[in-house]
Design a protein that fits this description.
- With 717 residues, the protein is of the alpha/beta class.
- Helices cover 42% and strands 15% of the residues.
- It has a six-stranded mixed β-sheet, covered by helices on one side. Strands 9-8-12-13-7-14 form a six-stranded parallel β-sheet. Strands 17-21-20-18-19 form a five-stranded parallel β-sheet.
- α22 links the parallel β12 and β13.
- It is globular and about 110 Å long.
- It starts with 7 loop residues before the first helix and ends in an 8-residue tail after the last strand.
Length: 717
């Protein structure tokens, strides 16, 4: 029976693993040089002097640059696992797959079937694995190893076992401002979700700290690996609650060897729009409600403010006129075809001409016929100016702005919104910038209005050549470089998220799904009609005030798709001391809360600090200083809506990246080594979902938690 060892023997184990890792990195460098050579050859093809050479250049350079980007992204901690198999073979697991010069497998990609036992094997079912080893590395240097003995009966006597467990070591690590990959420490219930069938909807649920987000991101990487043609070609869209969260997770997929994903916050889903501000909860609840569908439909089909309401023209012997009543009838008739408004300009002109022609009585005009009449009208500046003013191409942002006129909004919202809700919406639209909640309304309007017709371009015969050879060629900067334009990561395979005319993405991953409003579900559904989905969330953490309404919208968005559900049951984030406080609140005030088991204790209980208003600033400063001095990682300061500037002013001398001030909703999906919660009763009172929001905030800390306030009504009794 092998024994745990320490000292010099451990050093020897690390030295041996370092030699293997060195071989792998040498091969990685060789692969990078090969990719650079391919890129150089591609550029040389351009000197052939014909279109075929240019096409070959673009294809070769694109493939080479993509390979280089993948190799570069996987460089840090490339080798993280080793399996000692029953047959004596040693199988190394990494962030991507590599072969040696003889084409023998040097490193197994973590997503490959051969690597699945690294996550699935247990002592009860070792699946041919004797020892599982995790390599702890920084860049290309092995710092330590952690072993699990899975098959003691078949372990050789000289087998070395090292460490106390890779998972617990990972959990104790300090956090920075980005989410770490957990590819080396994935547990079996998480791996089951990652490797679920690709079709339909995979639902990943579980309480706070159970790793739902990181499991979902690993699933996206797994899908791209298993069916790259489908998912890279169609695109993978990852949607999170806010830009802070997207910045937090954006390194995870590249570190797993994947760059073919579009990352978008909810305020950035529609191309060309970037919103980071939430409306106050009461207004957000109205804008997100399913009732807005009817209001938006009325607005999109209604008259254009400032458009002419009367038209009068002399033709031959007749005076022809269209008054407001007749123009309203024509508008309704044109829209009755079911097509989108911006596509109906020609039909609107045709119906205007029909209505005018029916008024023609003079013999000369009737003799010349309707065709000459139409040509005369269409060539008339008077008629063309009227038609373009009466039926203009409409922009969704412009149309949403019509609601600044209270009378217009009240008319469109009759029977759907109360008078007080109309007032709140009008006031909110007076803001200088768009809110996150406005984005879904704009997307609905874009869908109702339709894309403006594109002008016909002259045909270029070279287009036929390029279409036949390499579709969708673009520059390397466009296809590989990627950018965080409009707050997103746009990378190879990522498709525009704003178009309403295409079928959307091949896969849509939605995190914090419990917070989506009905209108946001409609926005995402347009991008995933033919997609498979990964839906991540926990109803207990929902900030949406009407769960039933959101549930109905979610069911509509995912209708007709098979569903596979996976529940994560272990809280890896919070210490047991912190989660016990949060769980007490949930048991008392959140019916049916899904409470996972926290597996780690630190011996540090949460501190509850009550003070008066005059002492609040000093109490906050004391807590922040204590946590920042005592912890190596990040410390989050969580405040009620509207308190950020005030508290930021109280804490001038600090590293704002390491110690940020965030409103409660902006902490969704994030985690910090320490948290200071300011005025929890204010957070509870912000909305109907205030208790659930506070529950979220209580579960953001991994090590220490301070709660500072002037009252304590929130505490479970």
């Amino acid at each position: 029976m092998p024994d745990l060892i320490s000292g010099q023997a451990v050093e020897q184990e690390i030295k041996h693993e370092q030699s293997v890792v060195d071989r792998v990195y040498a091969r990685l460098e060789a692969a990078a040089e090969s990719a650079k050579s391919l890129a150089a050859e591609g550029h040389a093809r351009a000197r052939l002097g014909n279109e075929g050479g240019l096409v070959e250049r673009d294809a070769m350079v694109f493939q080479a640059a993509r390979r280089l980007a993948m190799l570069d992204a996987a460089h840090d901690g490339l080798v993280f696992g080793r399996l000692d198999m029953l047959d004596g073979a040693a199988r190394y697991i990494g962030r991507l797959g590599l072969r040696d010069a003889d084409r023998d497998i040097l490193l197994v990609d973590w997503r490959a079937p051969a690597a699945s036992v690294f996550y699935q094997a247990t002592a009860q079912d070792p699946a041919g694995v004797v020892r599982r080893r995790v390599l702890q590395s920084v860049a290309d240097r092995v710092l330590g190893v952690e072993d699990d003995l899975l098959d003691a009966e078949n372990a050789p006597d000289d087998l070395v076992l090292v460490g106390e467990g890779a998972l617990m070591a990972s959990l104790m690590r300090s956090r920075d401002r980005t989410m770490p990959s957990v590819v080396a420490t994935i547990q079996k219930e998480q791996d089951d979700a990652i490797r679920a069938p690709q079709k339909g909807v995979t639902i990943i649920s579980g309480g706070p700290g159970t790793g739902k987000t990181v499991v979902a991101l690993h699933r996206a990487a797994y899908l791209l690996y298993t069916d790259r043609r489908r998912f890279e070609g169609g695109g993978v869209l990852v949607v999170g609650p806010n830009a802070v969260f997207m910045s937090y997770i954006e390194r995870v997929l590249p570190s797993l060897g994947e760059t073919s994903v579009s990352l978008r916050a909810l305020g950035e889903v529609v191309d060309g729009i970037r919103a980071s501000r939430h409306d106050v909860p009461a207004v957000a609840a109205v804008k997100g409600s399913a009732r807005m569908r009817a209001v938006l439909a009325r607005t999109a089909s209604g008259p254009v403010p400032g458009a002419p309401t009367d038209f009068r023209v002399f033709y031959r012997d007749d005076v022809l006129r269209l008054d407001a009543k007749r123009l309203g009838g024509i508008r309704r008739s044109v829209l009755g075809s079911g097509q989108r408004r911006n596509k109906l300009g020609a039909k609107a002109v045709a119906e205007l001409l029909d209505a005018l022609w029916r008024q023609v009585k003079g013999g000369r005009a009737l003799e010349r016929g309707k065709e000459e009449f139409a040509q005369t009208m269409e060539g008339s500046r008077q008629f063309s100016d009227f038609a373009s003013s009466w039926w203009p191409i409409l922009d969704a942002t412009e149309v949403l702005g019509w609601w600044r006129d209270r009378d217009r909004l009240a008319a469109d919202a009759q029977g759907a919104l109360t008078s007080a809700e109309v007032d709140e919406l009008v006031e909110s639209l007076g803001a200088a910038d768009l809110s996150i909640e406005d984005v879904a309304l704009l997307d609905e309007l874009r869908y109702l209005l339709g894309e403006p017709p594109e002008p016909e371009a002259e045909h270029d015969p070279l287009d036929d050549l390029y279409d036949d050879l390499v579709p969708e060629l673009a520059t390397i900067d466009q296809r590989v470089g990627g950018s965080r334009a409009a707050g997103s990561v746009s990378v190879p395979g990522g498709r525009p998220t704003g178009s309403i005319e295409d079928d959307g993405f091949a896969h849509v991953l939605v995190d914090e799904a419990q917070d989506l409003s009905p209108m946001q579900w409609r926005m995402l559904a347009r991008r995933g009609r033919g997609a498979s989905w990964t839906v991540v969330g926990d109803a207990s953490q929902s900030s949406w005030p009407s769960p039933a309404e959101a549930s109905a919208a979610r069911a509509e968005a995912l209708a007709g798709k098979d569903q596979n559900a996976f529940r994560m049951s272990t809280n890896y984030r919070n210490s047991a001391e912190i989660f016990e406080l949060a769980a007490d609140l949930a048991r008392a005030r959140i019916p049916g809360a899904d409470l996972p088991v926290a597996i780690r204790r630190t011996g540090r209980e949460p501190r509850l600090i009550q003070t008066d208003l005059a002492g609040l600033a000093d109490a906050i400063r004391e807590s922040v200083a204590r946590l920042a001095d005592g912890l190596d990682g990040t410390v989050g300061i969580v405040v009620p809506v509207g308190w950020s500037a005030r508290v930021d002013g109280w804490l001038v001398e600090r590293d704002s990246r390491r110690v940020p001030v965030l409103e409660a909703l902006d902490t969704k999906g994030l985690e910090f080594d320490g948290i200071v919660i300011v005025e929890p009763d204010e957070i509870v009172g912000e909305s109907e979902a205030g208790v659930r929001t506070l529950y979220v905030v209580l579960t953001r800390a991994t090590q220490q938690l301070d709660i500072v306030g002037t009252s304590s009504r929130w505490q479970p009794r």
